[in-house]
Design goal:
Blueprint (H helix, E strand, L loop, with lengths): L1 H12 L10 H8 L7 H14 L17 H14 L3 E5 L3 H14 L7 E4 L5 H13 L4 E4 L13 E6 L6
Parallel strand pairs: 1-3, 1-4, 2-3
Length: about 170
């Protein structure tokens, strides 16, 4: 308990990036969600976005069963990050989940000017080199991948949000 208290005190002392309040573009993105949100989804999304607007680093855990909208909540946070000119990353445990999140994010952000890349063991060396260069130059807004995105050669121009998907928790 003593170590946790010290850790959280240390986190509160670190200055984070306060993201801008929601814009019309954010509201438009959210309105394009093809399903009706649950009250819990709406509440969690609003709480997370408000935390992102604070000047301290955010540390959140989002839990829920499969099919209860965690991915949409995460994508709303990612979009908020991106429209504030920061990059985002989603770390997943499997190549299959990386592909699923890549397809979902690509579909949700279609036409919004967001450059999304995926890195896993199925990404060719040529593609990886291109993605690494574009991440470093700030040309990739969102990268979704397995633990490959944690390796030393992965450098971001300005990472603003890291989401860790542990299948049932974000």
């Amino acid at each position: 308990a003593k170590e946790l208290i010290a850790l959280y005190a240390q986190r509160q002392a670190v200055k984070g990036h306060p993201f801008s309040p929601d814009t019309e573009l954010q509201r438009d993105f959210e309105a394009r969600f093809p399903y009706e949100e649950t009250p819990d989804q709406l509440r969690c999304s609003e709480e997370i976005k408000r935390d992102m607007e604070k000047a301290v680093p955010m540390d959140r855990l989002l839990c829920g069963d499969v099919g209860f909208g965690k991915t949409e909540v995460a994508l709303r946070a990612v979009f908020k990050c991106i429209i504030d000119n920061k990059q985002a990353a989603i770390l997943v445990p499997t190549t299959l989940l990386a592909r699923q999140h890549f397809e979902t994010a690509s579909e949700r952000m279609e036409g919004m000017g967001v450059n999304i890349a995926m890195m896993s063991r199925y990404t060719t060396q040529t593609e990886q080199k291109r993605i690494l260069r574009e991440l470093k130059d700030g040309l990739v807004d969102l990268v979704i991948g397995t633990h490959r995105i944690l390796q030393q050669d992965v450098m971001f121009k300005d990472l603003g949000l890291l989401i860790v998907d542990e299948e049932q928790r974000f």
